[in-house]
Amino acid sequence: MALLLTGKLIAEFGIRNSATDFFNVWAKQLHNLHNIAERMHDGKVHEGDWHDIGSVKIWTYTIDGKVETCKESIEAIDEENKLIIFNLFDGEISKNYKVLKPYLQVIDHKEQVGAVVKWTLEFEKLDEDVALPYHYLEFGTAMTKDIDAHLLKGNK
Fold first, then answer.
1. pLDDT the model gives residue 109
2. Which of 66, 70, 79, 111 has the lowest tally of Cβ within 10 angstroms?
């Protein structure tokens, strides 16, 4: 019996900053991400602009102790619901995954300070031998913690 090649992984957890402040880093400050997140080393615009839908950026980062590069584009931004859909491709990603799409949504807590960050990683593996992309979900979690700490220092 063949295993499924597609799926979703989800991580949901609290941060101490507001949903708006955290969302704005992703929606309006991608150019600064490599100065905020420890594992993100460099980012450059390849086509378009930093925050335009469909524009392409090239990122260099460390994942599982190894430096990798990939291209990223934004497929959708929903400011009202604080949701961004990214598409990751090329580099090491394309060696294992046909599709790797992180969805980032940030929701303010209703009864306490802070927000909830929800990362959903939609994927399609190239074959059954490829591992589930838990390491990319963990990478998003680590970047979230770095950004939350950065914002808590008063950096907006």
1. 85
2. 111
Name the DSSP letter for residue 126: S
Please list, in sequence order, all residues whose beta carbon lies within 8 angstroms of the beta carbon of residue 103, skipping any fewer than 6 positions away: 83, 84, 85, 86, 118, 119, 120, 121, 122
The CA distance from 17 to 37, in Å, is 16
Tell me the pLDDT tens digit for each residue of 102-125: 999 999 988 888 999 999 999 999
With beta carbons less than 8 A apart as the criterion, state whether 132 and 7 touch: yes
CA distances (Å), origin 127, targets 19, 28, 69, 93, 124: 37, 36, 21, 13, 9
Contact predicate 110/26, CB 8 Å: no
What is the pLDDT, as a whole number, of residue 103? 98
Instruction: Give buried/exposed letters for 102-121 (b at 16+ CB in 10 A, else e).
Output: bbbbbebeeeeeebebbbbb
User: What is the C-alpha to C-alpha distance for residues 28 and 94, in angstroms, rounded to an integer?
Assistant: 27
Region of 82 on the Ramachandran plot (φ > 0 left; ψ -120 to 50 alpha; else beta): left
Q: Are 40 and 33 in contact (CB under 8 A)?
A: yes
